[in-house]
Amino acid sequence: LEKQLLFLSLLCILSKVCAQLCRRPCYCPWVPPRCPRGSPLVLDGCGCCKICARRLGEPCDFLHVCDQSQGLVCDYSTAPAGTGGTCNFEDDEEGCEVNGRVYRDGEVFQPSCKLQCRCLDGGFTCIPLCQEDVRLPTPDCPYPRRVEIPGKCCPEWICEAQDQHLLRDARPVSPVLPYRCQEWGTEWSACSATCGVGFATRVSNQNRYCRLETQRRLCVVRPCPALPAAFPAVS
């Protein structure tokens, strides 16, 4: 009993010495608190009294510290000024996992040569690095075709010669394509004439070979007004 009293007295003296380092007076209870499962006993913010460590999502402040063994810190980012915070994981613990690799929050990475991604708030957003442009036939390049170039990541447009294009078209083509054609097309343009017969254009692959081509159709916005009758000649 005397040893226990001596030990408690030493604890009380040590607690008073440590309390002098804090701005608030520190008085510890004789019996340490009983903590719930998963919450260990730790020293408070003053380093003098044993308290139960706060768990994830629980309120915290200078005295009531979070469980550092679980990587928790007192987060004041979302708390009003002058109030306590909430136990949360450190910022550097947040990240995202892509293809078995973990990236830090805010880190920019490339899962492939065609994508550039950024880790943000546990998820990630990506932008394509290859341009998805559409090249229309021109007089100097009547048969453009996009192909994969060895040693390069992004496909490029090439201009086929007319004889090569005719040879490819001369091959027997099955009426059923070996793959499913995903139809794509732009909206029809405005009519080329404000009155009378004109034409509208669009780019579409809705054809037998599922190839991009410029299509045209006739259009009439409104009939043109009749020309006024010529005045009779005056002698």
Automatic annotation (TrEMBL):
Main localization category: secreted
Pfam families named among the record's database cross-references: IGFBP, TSP1_CCN, VWC
GO MF terms, alphabetically ordered: heparin binding; integrin binding
Compartment(s) where it occurs, according to its Swiss-Prot or TrEMBL record: Secreted
Signal peptide start and end residues: 1-19
Record-annotated VWFC domain positions: 94-160
Span of domain IGFBP N-terminal: 14-90
Highest taxon, organism lineage: Eukaryota
Keyword Secreted: yes
Keyword annotations from UniProtKB, A to Z: Cell adhesion, Disulfide bond, Secreted, Signal
Function description: May play an important role in modulating bone turnover. Promotes the adhesion of osteoblast cells and inhibits the binding of fibrinogen to integrin receptors. In addition, inhibits osteocalcin production.
PANTHER family tied to this protein: CCN FAMILY MEMBER 5 (PTHR11348:SF22), CONNECTIVE TISSUE GROWTH FACTOR-RELATED (PTHR11348)
Protein's recorded name: CCN family member 5
